[in-house]
């Protein structure tokens, strides 16, 4: 076999092997570790039962994919989390392709792949179902297509880029930042001449057409998503500042990987063979500036932009150490792997709960939240995987304690989409009636046609409801180990004889946040 084909086959096998690593990691977590359903997973399942062109807090693509997955497989945690596991593998594969297109060889491929596989934010985002794992993959794919455009400039690549950006927007509106960075990159790089052709405009048209259903949905629903974003910035994320955002870039990607992605930024901006891809660096810098100016951006919002920097940085490190200074390779790979393994239990649910608590205490790391929440023994990400079934069981007990005639007109009221979604999910296991909530898309889904309901309310204080109901009784107190404090020790109330018509009240309690 000619040497060219031997090398080509070896590289293809290497790509597959490296891509299989995160897949196997997440399959192991899903089968033998992991915790319960995450708050957002339950909400996504609730959304998937109501197919639409949009939802208050996210576009519809991830929900359509979940609907198909549920139809083909099941609602099991393994089936649910197999999708982000596959996305993690595809992201590593695309990273390998970016290394190849920018001139990297074997070491660069391995280094870039390890940086992606071991980055805490990618481990976390790919360990549960949400729009985020797909977002990371689509950003990586978009960067790869941009690199192909620079190398080959074929019209088909511009068409594919429009498709990827459109799907990215239909998955998460933050993909607009990529589009803004791409425009900036075209304007200030030597690719500006492309603006004199039809290609970038065709890309934009395709992306807009794919994204248009969500634009139309927002027009029909009083720009619900914009209202949601504004409220989230002003309240939920108001405690995040510029320093948090900058520090988060180091913590989320891992302390050692900064040497790789910063090298990647240099490679694309200044290095002789990397400068032809400068547009990639401009996209990253533009998005960084946009998020920094916002003042309350979560650090993780920028995380999808790092796979391409890992690729570029690995290529430059490989070239600079190919003959001399080979020790630098070991000085990077060994600490990268060691710190990645050390941090992994803090990013993904690898350890049993008690072991995790002991481990984090040993490291001196306190539970954290990006939403100004009181914390328990677990960080919010892990705590939100606990307590939902116990809550459903307790609510069911309250419901079954009611006389039969009252059960026929009983509804459950959840304070947030997590509570409401959990009640819906577990109603096949426990007797639970219709659940309503004023939070995000649940508010749009309405309250049904019961005008004089017996309402089981999860949480709050009795005095909060006495202005709304003539009769409010405390039934029991829900408790659950390891859940978020605001989801623990909740009194479950039975409220009867509503004073204000439900339709009139519903208009006043909308909560897009």
Q: What's the arrangement of secondary structure elements?
A:
Layout: H1 3-32, H2 39-48, H3 61-72, H4 77-101, H5 106-118, H6 120-125, H7 131-152, H8 155-171, H9 175-188, H10 199-220, H11 224-236, H12 242-253, H13 258-269, H14 278-294, H15 307-320, H16 327-347, H17 353-363, H18 380-383, H19 388-400, H20 404-407, E1 410-414, H21 417-425, E2 435-437, H22 441-445, E3 454-458, H23 462-465, E4 469-478, E5 490-498, H24 502-506
Parallel strand pairs: 1-2, 1-3
Antiparallel strand pairs: 3-5, 4-5
Helix pairs in contact: 1-4, 1-5, 2-3, 2-21, 4-5, 4-7, 4-15, 5-15, 5-16, 7-8, 8-9, 8-10, 9-14, 13-14, 13-15, 19-21
What does this structure look like?
With 513 residues, this protein is of the alpha/beta class. It has two domains: 13-355, no CATH class; 388-506, no CATH class. The chain contains 24 helices and five strands. A five-stranded mixed sheet has the order 2-1-3-5-4. β1 (410-414), α21 (417-425) and β2 (435-437) form a beta-alpha-beta unit. α4 packs parallel to α7 and α5 packs parallel to α16 (327-347). It starts with a helix and ends in a 7-residue tail after the last helix. The model has no long low-confidence stretch (mean pLDDT 94).
